[in-house]
Please model this.
Amino acid sequence: MEMIINQNLLDSLSASAKASPRLRMNLDLRNSPEDQSQRMLNAIEPGSPFPIHRHMKSSETVVCLRGHLREVYYNDAGEVTDVIDLAHGSDCVAVNIPLGQWHSVEVLDSGTVILECKDGAYDPLGPEDILEVGLIRRLKTFLENEARSCSMDPACVTPEYVCRMLGGTMAPEDIAESLEKAKELLR
Model:
C-alpha cells in the first residue's frame, strides 16, 4: 500500500494533535492489522505528557521529520543520564533507543512530527514499564521542562494546568501542595 508522506499530511496530523487533550496524534503506517511491526507518524505538541518508560521487547527508532524534541534517558533511580536533542535539519535527526532503556520525550517546537518504529506487534506498556518517581520530583522535572521549552514561567504553573498536561490522571487538589514544594526546589 503506497502512502505519500508530504507536508499537507504532516500539517493535518499536527492540527489533530493540537486539538487532542493529550496534545499528540499518531497515524498507523502498517500495511494491515496483521502486520507485526510498529510504524507510525506521531505528531506531538509541547506539554504532551510522557511518563518515563521502557520497552522490554524492542528497541525504538525515532526520526524527527519536523520540529524539535529531546529524548531523555534515565537510570533506575529516575536520574537523567543522557539527553539526545533531535531537530529536523540539525546534525542529529534520529536515535535508536536501546531495548530496556528508561526514557521520556520533551517536545520543544509546536508542529513536531516523528516517525516511530519498533519490532513486533503492539505491546502496551505495563506497570513494570513505567518508572514512578516521587510526585514532588516529577513535578520539579515538569516545571524544569516548561521553563526550558519557554512555554510557561514555572511560577505561573497552576495545579489545573498540571492536571491537564498530565492527561487528567490526578485531581488539582491532590497536586497543589506537592506543586508548591516542587516550585520551592527551583528557587
Notes: The first strand starts at residue 24 and ends at 28. Residues 1-131 form a domain with the Jelly Rolls fold (CATH 2.60.120.10). The helical segments are 7-19, 135-148, 159-165, 172-186. Residues 118 and 177 are 39 Å apart (CA to CA).
